[in-house]
Design goal:
Helix 11 runs parallel beside helix 13. The chain folds into two domains: 127 residues, Aspartate Aminotransferase, domain 1; 237 residues, Aspartate Aminotransferase, domain 2 (3-Layer(aba) Sandwich). The strands form four sheets. Strands 4-12-11-10-7-5-6 form a seven-stranded mixed β-sheet, sandwiched between helices. By secondary structure, the protein is α/β, with parallel strands linked by helices. Bound molecules: pyridoxal-5'-phosphate (PLP). The site of pyridoxal-5'-phosphate has 15 residues, from helix 5.
């Protein structure tokens, strides 16, 4: 670590990081001591094309020399092109709102919900939708909510994949928020049948169905959006993380009647649709298309699942594509995360017993094999130490 005291200059909200990263290329990153790592976390499912991908750096460089920022008083070409591209890949007659983060995308969806004239919001236990007061209000984790109460009233939480959940959606429900695969909650997928039932019920109660695709969107599951596998059509899709390929970008796609809920002046954000970030996002989507990366995601995801499921000490693997949760039989996930880092692999303990891996969509067979080898070694080492540091 470079010579500074983290706690003297940063607020104490993250805890002190273990290493400092200085450079990266593709799936490889280097720290300030010169150590090299295989990056299988990608800045939490953000660096979709890995580090310093030439299509991203060239797009950003080119754009920042021409026009860096316009505000939404004026149109800019990259934002127009990106909106058109997102509409195309959504396969719906969608309209777009650009923002800068996942929480902000979900705030937008909450405000759309309010514009239905109804107040109640429904979300899932163990969900994660962001840290702003609105997004936190629909985040189903008491430990994150408690220190900041009172939050928005009239939020109800349901269990995913449970029939009782469907009954809780009522006429007074403005919007239902779901992740197709709960990311921060431990990589727990919604079953197709559950999403189909929620869709059917929300159509009957005239409640917006908001799919939070912030972590699962833009190719991470092997399809453009995680909900696609279930065949449903949501009213609202929220995006961020992987969209900007490493730059801060959020988007909300809105379909059907919900497109008429906002009127001029009711919502906005200064940086939304910033041309530099829009160029990066366009470069990411175009490259995924051109190189058939969705197929690579499915193939590498299947290989990872196969190799990791053979490791002794692994109980279960959840998720799909390149968003996988590896549930351990008995070891603390945090210990295995630390040991993986010592051995040159970045992943994270998303819960006490589950490791999350989310490598760049360009990851190759060699890197996948190496990841599985290091995980195997890490689990063996932690087991030898008795699982305690
Ligand atoms: C990360 C995440 C968010 C919050 O995104 P930020 O950019 O950190 O605000 C919201 N929803 C899901 C599903 C996420 O994974």
């Amino acid at each position: 670590m470079t010579n500074f005291n983290w706690n003297n200059i940063f607020l104490n909200n993250y805890g002190t990081p273990s290493i400092q990263l200085v450079a990266g290329e593709g799936v490889i990153v280097k720290d300030s001591q010169g150590n090299i790592y295989l990056d299988f976390l990608s800045g939490i499912a953000v660096n979709s094309l890995g580090h310093a991908h030439p299509v991203v750096t060239e797009a950003v460089n080119d754009q920042i020399r021409k026009l860096a920022h316009t505000s939404n008083f004026y149109a800019n070409e990259p934002a127009i092109k990106l909106a058109e591209k997102l509409i195309e890949i959504s396969k719906f007659d969608a309209k777009v709102f650009f923002c800068n983060s996942g929480a902000e995308a979900n705030e937008t969806a909450i405000k759309l919900g309010r514009r239905t004239g109804k107040k109640q919001l429904i979300s899932a236990h163990n969900s994660f939708h962001g840290r702003t007061i609105g997004a936190l209000s629909i985040t189903g984790q008491t430990s994150k909510q408690k220190p900041f109460e009172p939050l928005l009233g009239d939020v109800r939480f349901i269990d995913i994949n449970a029939n009782s959940a469907i009954r809780k959606i009522k006429r007074k429900t403005a919007a239902v928020f779901l992740e197709s695969i709960q990311g921060e909650g431990g990589v727990t997928p919604c079953e197709d049948e559950f999403l189909q039932k929620v869709r059917k019920k929300t159509l009957r109660t005239k409640s917006l169905l908001v799919m939070d695709e912030v972590q699962t969107g833009l190719g991470r599951t092997g399809q453009w959006f995680g909900y696609e596998k279930s065949g449903i059509k949501p009213d609202v899709i929220t995006l961020a993380k992987g969209l900007g390929g490493g730059l801060p970008m959020g988007a909300v796609l809105v379909t059907g009647d919900a497109q008429n809920l906002f009127e001029p002046g009711q919502h906005g954000t200064t940086f939304g649709g910033n041309p530099v970030v829009a160029r990066a996002s366009l470069a990411v989507i175009n490259f995924i298309e051109k190189e058939n990366l969705l197929d690579n995601v499915s193939n590498m995801g299947n290989l990872l699942t196969k190799l990791i499921s053979q490791i002794q000490g692994v109980k279960e693997i959840r998720g799909r594509g390149l968003l996988l949760g590896i549930c351990l039989e008995s070891l603390p996930a945090k210990e295995v995360e630390n040991e993986c880092r010592n051995l040159g692999l970045l992943i994270n303990a998303v819960t006490e017993d589950t490791l999350r891996i989310a490598p760049a969509l360009i990851v190759n067979i060699e890197q996948v094999k190496r990841c599985a080898e290091i995980m195997d070694d890490a689990i063996k080492n932690v087991t030898k130490k008795g699982g305690i540091k």
